[in-house]
Design the sequence.
């Protein structure tokens, strides 16, 4: 792992460890979504299996956005980002470190949320359960990678929180569709999720590559 | 306006601004500024709020691009290409509140792989701070943050030091110590540019005093350095 990438990552993890800002806010928010959906739809039996994938993905999406909106907040405060723009290491490494850190935060929330999710929705997995360990990280990376990039893009906007949602959600739709279909396929065991997983993988490769290539331009813009 | 490098070419040029203007929408923060800055000198930029001092510093740092005109820093047409050799200290500390001073400095030192950086503890001692302090920066006073910020800038031993209001939030004694530190730094043929409202504090190291008014160079005069 490149040294600067590691340096940025350790810094982000250390700060989150001390504040727990992102993880606590995401956990609270996603927990609320899961509870509210379970009250609204009274999920039981087969119906529960059908909607659970969608609820999990939407809960992850909304919770992540609350963290992504704050992803660059510490860099904006006290103009730390200017100091980072002055160092000779590539901006792409800062982007990648930030994306990896937030990916870990969201994954932790998903792991903590999973037991409650299974209890509230009376779930049992009919398909290959291990495939969830492929689908969820791929979908989470699609959300977080794009989210970090577009959060950086909207930093200089006064309405950056609104702007992030407006840009991110439409772009995330293909990945969301693939994530929901794959998760539902795994939970119900009625369809093969392989095609959706491939689509997620392709989406991640394309968007991560584009973000890495363009991040320096966004980062050094006035 | 007097331009030192055209008067007598005593030292190699560190930076040259040629007819530089900077517009923010319809507001002109800088208007056709032409200045030659020599290596190993200390320049003090004075002027009222909004005179363009900070904008000039940010252009030299490569954080802003001029709307018109050319800037050359260490021979590069893009100051950003020379960023490794430039240290920039802004009004804000440019550090993380959640980390200690040592952690902040260690973080930034790791991002300069090709430069022989100072040890974080050494940089902190230079600015009069105790490196053993375990408090995070968020618990520091404004003056201590300012010193830590200066330590961050000195860390990579830059050849061009850009300091935006370094004496704000500092008591007179601390400011005097900072000036002495900067005087020592200048001895190594390093260039220092300071913006300040407290001209008298920077006077002991001011080789040149550049006054800006409404984005234009109002005067460019010899200082009377005593250090």
Sequence:
């Amino acid at each position: 792992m490149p040294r600067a990438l590691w340096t940025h990552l350790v810094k982000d993890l250390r700060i989150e460890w001390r504040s727990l800002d992102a993880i606590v806010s995401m956990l609270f928010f996603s927990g609320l979504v899961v509870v509210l959906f379970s009250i609204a739809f009274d999920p039981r039996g087969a119906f529960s299996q059908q909607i659970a994938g969608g609820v999990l993905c939407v809960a992850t999406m909304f919770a992540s956005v609350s963290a992504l909106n704050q992803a660059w907040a510490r860099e904006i405060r006290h103009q730390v980002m200017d100091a980072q723009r002055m160092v000779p290491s590539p901006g792409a490494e800062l982007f990648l470190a930030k994306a990896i850190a937030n990916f870990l935060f969201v994954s932790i929330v998903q792991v903590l949320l999973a037991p409650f999710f299974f209890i509230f929705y009376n779930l049992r997995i009919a398909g290959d359960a291990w495939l969830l360990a492929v689908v969820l990280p791929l979908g989470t990376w699609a959300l977080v990678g794009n989210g970090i990039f577009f959060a950086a893009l909207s930093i200089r906007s006064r309405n950056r929180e609104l702007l992030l949602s407006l840009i991110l959600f439409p772009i995330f739709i293909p990945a969301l569709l693939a994530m929901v279909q794959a998760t539902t396929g795994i939970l119900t065991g009625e369809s093969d999720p392989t095609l959706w997983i491939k689509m997620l993988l392709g989406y991640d490769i394309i968007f991560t590559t584009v973000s890495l290539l363009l991040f320096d331009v966004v980062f050094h813009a006035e | 306006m007097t331009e030192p490098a055209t008067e007598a070419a005593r030292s190699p040029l560190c930076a040259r601004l040629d007819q530089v203007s900077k517009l923010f929408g319809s507001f002109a923060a800088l208007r056709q500024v032409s200045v030659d800055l020599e290596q190993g000198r200390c320049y003090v930029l004075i002027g009222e709020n909004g005179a363009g001092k900070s904008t000039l510093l940010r252009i030299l740092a490569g954080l802003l691009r001029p709307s018109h005109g050319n800037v050359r820093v260490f021979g590069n047409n893009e100051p950003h290409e020379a960023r490794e050799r430039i240290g920039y200290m802004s009004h804000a500390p440019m550090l993380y509140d959640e980390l200690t001073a040592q952690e902040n400095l260690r973080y930034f030192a790791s991002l300069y792989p090709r430069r022989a950086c100072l040890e974080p503890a050494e940089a902190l001692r230079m600015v009069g701070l105790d490196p053993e302090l375990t408090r995070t920066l968020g618990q520091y006073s404004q003056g201590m943050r300012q010193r830590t910020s200066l330590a961050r800038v000195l860390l990579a031993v830059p050849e061009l030091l850009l300091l935006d209001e370094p004496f704000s939030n500092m008591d007179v004694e601390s400011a005097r110590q900072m000036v002495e530190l900067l005087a020592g730094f200048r001895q190594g043929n390093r260039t220092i540019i300071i913006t300040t409202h407290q001209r008298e504090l920077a006077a002991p190291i001011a080789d040149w005093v550049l006054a800006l008014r409404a984005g234009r160079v109002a005067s460019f005069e010899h200082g009377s350095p005593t250090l």
Observations:
- Chain A touches chain B at residues 3-4, 7, 11, 14-15, 18-19, 74, 77-80, 82-89, 220, 222 (CB under 8 Å).
- The mean pLDDT of chain A is 90.
